[in-house]
């Protein structure tokens, strides 16, 4: 039986691992709003503030195995006893003698390494302070575990990269010539002269630094400022001559134009038995020297580092407590803490800057941004409001959008790789997110908040380039008179969804374009169609109609050009629909007239419902297959992708999830779909759900996904994002047992650390061996939080009121009769406790009693609704206790 990789040690998500150092590809995030780090048990990894600002050399997953670069700490006793306290050395025999244990918690990392033959143990604590200083702090505590005195020389040895990730292969040596090294009394500072970019060099404005001192605030005795000086010609970072031969640095050696090193050799010390000595190392990226001096003063002694560490622990535990659960399974509750902070991690890291995410260059992807907002809304919706309003300015008037959103308000980028492309599902997510926000807050006024439209050289949904457009024209759509045009958020939503209703292929489903949610379906741009997301556009049109009918308005004002998309016509006529869309594109290609029209709300809602009903009926009629599931795609040859044929069945999970989620699939169809999913997509060994069946051949007319090995990435992996959405969809449609089975399969796989080989959290996917891949930065975490809170516990908003409609499976009460959830709603803190009466928990249980702060509340059999005005009357600054008895 395989050993567990980790075990929780408290109720705050902290865990212990005696095996982590044996998995070289295992990494851990450290971060605040200014610095982003990855760190491994042997202290490999990198530190950066952005794509052009890496303090340590950028690493991908394989670099964690191959690279010699690390945050090393050497201890020299004599020629026969030279110890890397991090385990990064060519002395493999000595490393095997080390006893290693990792203890970590919410964004702090501590490795203990002991070598009895050496007679020393070392604790290395690493964290990024929650107060936002742009540093990673490393505190090294060395203890004499022998019975006699030990004399040694300690040396922190960390190579400095100090440039853009692009320079790994692009002018690596040339950019070394830009480095300007400044020796500080506490270490090394590097201030490159330029950020090297042949498309436009620019002056560097950042200082990279590594500084260190001992517990008495004494600096290093010697500093080796270059790798050449530290390693020597015959040595390297795992066997540096300065350590092996106990050499002092050559003070006359040239230090400019070389690869930089921060090797800080501290004074020789003698430790008595059981005595300890600590060292503090700061690694960071600053704006100026004054900021560096402030940072030094902030952490200049062990007491201040300890206070910062405790503050950082408290901050991240607080973040993970905004939504916390008590399920009767302590491991699950602790694991959920990690899942709940993943959306915040992705807000900091984007979809880049961790070793598995080596394809990113910074910024947050459009779809990822909106889905991360789901869990942020559940935690603190008022803080999210400005973010939502800002993001709508990334929508183009043709219904497409900027694909990358920067950290600054109004910062949008067409595409991180300067490719003209559109993901056809991008119009779906803003409305789903906004609907959650409105239900949580009751803030319908946000629909009338005005935002600009994004404008760049991409036009006609990126099918053409406007060569006359210049960046100097600004990034916003303008009117004929040259003014920036602003429309309501509702108008933006109408544009996104109405354009797609008319943007159809030869089967009258929405065109696939560059890809949809599955980025791997990217080779059917001309003729591909996505039935799966046609379902969601039908759902959104219906949802928009509902929002209009609840708005209380009789008329709304829209840009005159939208009238073309509201024409009632024969929706079966594909060419006519395409003509209407092309006419709209021509009218909005360059500018808008600036004129507005008033639209009757009832007529507009009826038009949207008519379109939704037609599209839903079309999908039910023409996309349902005899095996008992939906076909979700047509490829670039205009051929149906899924179904039976050639002695095999082809099926994609997404093609079933979105008909269920959208309401397009009828209950009878959902029952058939569930049988098909368990027949064709359930892995009998792993007990997880594949993203698709094995198509057995590449699909050059559909996408790159099928060129990947089956079972990884978008080709048949246990892809958690889609699997969680399956669970959410089943719960939403009332299939509770089925939803719980799916949700439990995910947490079981993630928490089986002997197999998944990852730290606590929800990875992007599991491969065929059940190993977790791409940890931390995945939208599946937001959907897991949403599903567990809103559907399983049933605690959610409805037009700003608090609705509680639990959907428990009896298995969830198999260990105890009580579960609870804590969350904030309408600014009030709640602990909501659910309990069963005596007897065997039943599937068809009803609510039989409700008490709020000791007072009985009215309720219905299946739900409790507390009006928002009643919530506001609850006492402030206290936890309101809501008790719900089921039976």
What's this model, at a glance?
The chain is an alpha+beta fold. Helix 9 (366-379) runs parallel beside helix 11 (429-441) and helix 16 packs parallel to helix 18 (720-732). The longest helix is centred in the last third of the chain and has 22 residues, at 601-622.
Description:
The model has no long low-confidence stretch (mean pLDDT 94). Helix 10 packs antiparallel against helix 11 (429-441) and helix 13 runs antiparallel to helix 15 (601-622). Among the domains are: 13-287, Glycoside hydrolase, family 65, N-terminal domain (Beta-galactosidase, Chain A, domain 5), CATH 2.70.98.40; 323-349 and 623-792, Glycosyltransferase, CATH 1.50.10; 797-886, Maltose phosphorylase, domain 3. The chain has 887 residues and is of the alpha+beta class. It is 29% helix and 24% strand. A hairpin with a 5-residue loop joins strand 40 and strand 41 (772-773). It has a ten-stranded antiparallel β-sheet. Strands 7, 8, 13, 19, 20 and 21 form a six-stranded antiparallel β-sheet that branches. The longest helix has 22 residues, at 601-622. It contains 22 helices and 49 strands.
């Amino acid at each position: 039986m395989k050993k567990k990789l980790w075990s929780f040690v408290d109720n705050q998500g902290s865990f212990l691992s005696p095996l982590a150092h044996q998995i070289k590809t295992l990494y851990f995030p450290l971060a605040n709003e200014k610095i982003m780090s990855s760190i491994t048990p042997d202290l490999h990894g990198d530190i950066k503030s952005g794509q052009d600002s890496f303090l340590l050399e950028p690493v991908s997953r394989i670099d964690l195995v191959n690279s010699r670069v690390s945050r090393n700490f050497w201890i020299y006793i004599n020629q026969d006893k030279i110890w890397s306290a991090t385990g990064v050395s060519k002395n493999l025999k000595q490393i095997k003698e080390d006893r290693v244990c990792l203890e970590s918690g919410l964004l702090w990392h501590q490795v203990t390494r002991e070598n009895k033959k050496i007679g020393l143990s070392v604790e290395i604590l690493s964290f990024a302070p929650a107060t936002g200083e742009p540093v990673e702090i490393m505190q090294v505590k060395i203890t004499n575990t022998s019975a006699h005195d030990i004399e040694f020389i300690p040396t922190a040895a960390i190579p400095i990269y100090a440039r853009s990730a692009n320079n790994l292969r692009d002018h690596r040596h040339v950019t070394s010539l830009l480095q300007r090294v400044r020796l500080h009394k506490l270490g090394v500072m590097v201030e490159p002269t330029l950020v090297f970019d042949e498309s436009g060099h620019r002056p560097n404005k950042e200082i990279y630094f590594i500084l260190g001192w001992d517990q008495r605030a004494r600096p290093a005795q010697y500093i080796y400022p270059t790798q050449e000086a530290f390693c020597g010609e015959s040595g390297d970072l795992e066997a540096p001559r300065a350590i092996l031969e106990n050499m002092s640095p050559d003070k006359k050696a040239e230090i400019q134009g070389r690869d930089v090193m921060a090797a800080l050799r501290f004074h020789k010390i003698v430790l008595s038995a059981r005595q300890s000595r600590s060292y503090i190392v700061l690694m960071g990226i600053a704006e100026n020297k004054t900021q560096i001096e402030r940072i030094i003063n902030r952490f200049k002694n062990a007491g201040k580092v300890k206070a910062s560490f405790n503050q950082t622990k408290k901050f991240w535990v607080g973040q993970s407590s905004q939504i916390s659960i008590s399920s009767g399974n302590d491991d699950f509750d602790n694991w959920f803490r990690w899942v709940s902070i993943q959306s915040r991690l992705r807000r900091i890291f984007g979809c880049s800057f961790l070793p598995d995410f080596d394809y990113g260059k910074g910024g947050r992807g459009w779809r990822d941004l909106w889905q991360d907002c789901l869990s942020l809304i559940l935690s603190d919706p008022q803080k999210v409001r400005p973010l939502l309003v800002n993001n709508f300015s990334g929508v183009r008037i043709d219904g497409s959008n900027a694909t990358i959103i920067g950290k600054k308000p109004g910062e949008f980028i067409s595409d991180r790789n300067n490719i003209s492309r559109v993901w056809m599902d991008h119009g779906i997510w803003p409305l789903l997110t906004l609907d959650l926000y409105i239900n949580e807050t009751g803030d319908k006024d946000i629909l009338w908040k005005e935002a600009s439209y994004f404008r760049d050289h991409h036009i006609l949904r990126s099918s053409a380039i406007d060569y006359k457009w210049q960046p100097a024209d600004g990034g916003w759509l303008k009117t004929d008179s040259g003014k920036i045009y602003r429309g309501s958020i509702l108008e933006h939503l109408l544009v996104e969804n109405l354009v797609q209703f008319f943007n159809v292929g030869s089967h009258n489903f929405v065109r696939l374009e560059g890809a949809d949610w599955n980025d791997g379906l990217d080779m059917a741009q001309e003729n591909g169609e996505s039935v799966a997301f046609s379902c969601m556009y039908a759902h959104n049109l219906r949802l928009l109609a509902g929002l209009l009918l609840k708005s209380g308005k009789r008329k709304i004002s829209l840009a005159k050009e939208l009238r073309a998309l509201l024409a009632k016509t024969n929706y079966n006529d594909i060419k006519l629909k395409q003509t209407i869309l092309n006419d709209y594109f021509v009218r909005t290609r360059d500018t808008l007239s600036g004129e507005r029209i008033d639209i009757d709300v009832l007529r507009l809602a009826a038009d949207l419902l008519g379109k939704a009903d037609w599209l839903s009926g079309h999908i039910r009629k023409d996309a349902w297959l005899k095996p008992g599931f939906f076909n979700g795609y047509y490829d670039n040859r205009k051929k149906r992708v899924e179904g039976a044929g050639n002695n095999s069945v082809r099926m994609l999970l997404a093609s079933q999830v979105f008909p269920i989620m959208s309401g397009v699939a009828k209950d009878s169809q959902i029952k058939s779909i569930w049988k098909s999913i368990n027949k064709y997509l359930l892995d009998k060994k792993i007990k997880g759900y594949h993203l698709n069946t094995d198509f057995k051949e590449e699909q050059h007319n559909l996408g790159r996904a099928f060129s990947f090995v089956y079972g990884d990435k978008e080709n048949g992996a246990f892809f958690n994002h889609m699997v969680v959405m399956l669970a959410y969809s089943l719960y939403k449609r009332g299939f509770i047992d089925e939803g719980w089975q799916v949700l439990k399969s995910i947490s079981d796989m993630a928490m089986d650390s002997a197999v998944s080989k990852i730290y606590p959290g929800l990875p992007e996917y599991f491969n065929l061996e059940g190993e977790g891949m791409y940890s931390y930065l995945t939208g599946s975490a937001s959907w897991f939080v949403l599903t567990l809170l809103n559907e399983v516990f049933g605690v959610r908003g409805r037009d700003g009121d608090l609705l509680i409609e639990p959907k428990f499976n009896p298995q969830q009460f198999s260990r105890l009769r009580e579960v609870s959830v804590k969350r904030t709603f309408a600014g009030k803190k709640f602990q909501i406790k659910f309990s069963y009466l005596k007897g065997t928990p039943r599937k068809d249980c009803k609510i039989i009693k409700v008490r709020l702060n000791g007072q009985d509340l009215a309720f219905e059999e299946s739900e409790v609704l507390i009006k928002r005005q009643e919530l506001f009357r609850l006492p402030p600054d206290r936890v309101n206790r809501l008790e719900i008895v089921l039976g």
